[in-house]
Amino acid sequence: MNSLFLSPQHVLQGGYFNSTLRKLQEPNTSIEPHNIMYPIFLLEDDDAVQPVSSMPNVFRYGLNKLIPALGELVNKGLQSVLIFGIVEKLPKDSRGSSADCKDNPVVKALPKLRQAFPQLTLASDVCLCPYTSHGHCGVLTENGVIDHEPSVKRIADVALAYAKAGAHIVAPSDMMDNRIKAIKDALVANKLQNQVSVLSYSCKFASAMYGPFRDTMKSSPMAGDRKCYQLPPGSAGLAARAAERDVAEGADFLMVKPGLPYLDIVRQTKDRYPNHPLFIYQVSGEYAMIAQQKDSNEMQTILLETLTCMRRAGADCIITYFAPLVLSIISKQ
Ligand code: PBG
Ligand code: ZN
To answer: How distant, in Å, are the alpha carbons of 78, 81, 206 from that of 320?
Structure first.
């Protein structure tokens, strides 16, 4: 009798014919609340709420509107947020003075958020670009290039201000060499090193997928681009060296950003640093691409597949604007 059947180990389909068995075949890819971090845009005006035009269902909130919105999500299991401050009234200057002034929306909100949500982990993005007149992530020299030393000093000062205000995690997104060490040193000098951790945007690429975010934050560079500090999209080598640099400087958590086109970098980073929890940032452009799917069931399926694949590639926590939707989906499962 002729048979196509070659050898028993090539018969796979007996191993995943129901959903319980399929779960066993997908280890470490579950999406639980601690695997999700929600980015939020915080306005100066406490009572304002504004939709983000390029990102359906994403809003910018003043604190008084944010608290009830977050309350609902915390009830659904939300465990961590990443806060971005947006200023329209406070002045923007060459060194981003409004990033850590006493009227900065993040500095003002952190103590109140801690009080309102004692169980919620509060991460603060640390960067100068939303606050500088030139829109770059550091301080510039007269020639318009990044002035490294004062940039790192400013970034460490801003991180310390957020730490003092109550952030559990400070997350520098500027990509300057040496800023992780400067931040850790500042935390140690202020006896905060055992209460605040540092999430480094370690492998952040100069991506065109940050467009909707920059519109939202009004943080586009006035001149030039960010290619001299963010990584070239084709460079796995620089991504490896950037992660190595930040681990050596004392980063607690690493990140790859954007997410989906960079899953090889996620795997590479996780393999090299298995003992550092790895974040992935599903950025604004990725959000917009998935959110434009009209059929909501189809959209949810695409979203969950994408998040599962990020977990499979090695991400421990996914920063996503879809957090509210993900929490509703998983709380029903
Ligand atoms: C700024 C910053 C950016 C993002 C997070 N922090 C934009 C940039 O570097 O130009 C992107 C987030 C997103 O697109 O969702 N340092
Ligand atoms: Zn920046």
So the answer is: 12, 10, 19
What is each CA distance from 55 to 87, 210, 211, 218, in whole angstroms?
19, 12, 10, 14
- The finding on whether 125 has its CB within 6 A of some atom of ligand 1 is yes
**Distances 283 to 212, 226, 259, 314 between C-alpha atoms, Å:** 9, 16, 7, 17
d(CA 249, CA 150): 18
Length of the chain as a residue count: 333
Range of weakest confidence among 12-26, 240-254, 255-269: 12-26
Reading the block at residue 72, the tokens are 């609902």
CA 288 – CA 135 distance, rounded (Å): 23
Tell me, using a 6 A CB cutoff, whether residue 132 lines ligand 1: no
Atom 1 of ligand 1: nearest residue by CA position: 173
CATH number assigned to the domain comprising residue 327: 3.20.20.70
Count structural domains, the chain.
1
The model's confidence at residue 1, banded by pLDDT at 50, 70 and 90, is low
Start-to-end CA distance of the chain, whole Å, equals 47
Overall pTM surpassing 0.90 (yes/no): yes
- 20: domain range? 2-332
Mutate to test the pocket of ligand 1, among 210, 318, 321 (most ligand atoms within 8 A of CB): 210
